[in-house]
Amino acid sequence: MKVREVMNSKPVTCQAGDLVSDAAKIMKKKKISGMPVLDGERLVGVISESDLLHLLSTEEEGQLWLPSPFEIFEVPFRDLLKWEKLHGNMEDISKKNISEVMNRNVRQISPDDSIEDAAAIMVRHKINRLPVVDDGKLVGIVTRGDIIAGLGKSNEEA
How far apart are CA 127 and CA 48, in angstroms? Predict the structure, then answer.
């Protein structure tokens, strides 16, 4: 089965110069977890929920910090500073361009490639979607769900 048989030929896209907040609104409204990023009509990246979530992480996150007895009184102050930093980051995030946070290392596939090839790329690179490009132009998108649906459809026909 070919990618063209299961892909969405009208992918939701955004422009590299759009704001991150616009991308988040589009993903929420369309109930998608990522989308191709274009510069005009040229594919230049992909933005995903993961890219947006990475914007919220702080340098100290994930590190275990246990206070010494002398630091007990500093803890509330440190937490307050951390909260202020996160709040400031939230305001800055919404003003960033998508081009600043998108993944530029875009894996793509041709509509004439097999869904097995698409699945192998997705598994190997731990990605959920592949832009479908033909003659340098974005012609669709294929997701893991599209491939699974295609497999189910081909089994019904057999």
Answer: 10
Q: How many CB atoms lie within 10 A of CB 2?
A: 15
What is the pTM assigned to this prediction? 0.76
Give the H or E element holding residue 131.
Answer: strand 129-134
17: helix, coil or strand? Answer: coil
Judge whether 139 and 133 are in contact, CB under 8 Å.
yes
Query: CATH for 3-54+96-157, among 3.10.580.10, 1.20.950.20, 3.50.50.60, 3.60.15.10?
Result: 3.10.580.10
Report H helices in 75-140: 75-94, 115-125
Contact between 110 and 45 (Cβ < 8 Å): no
Q: Per-residue confidence at 53, pLDDT binned at 50, 70, 90?
A: confident
DSSP lists the bridge partners of residue 14 as 37
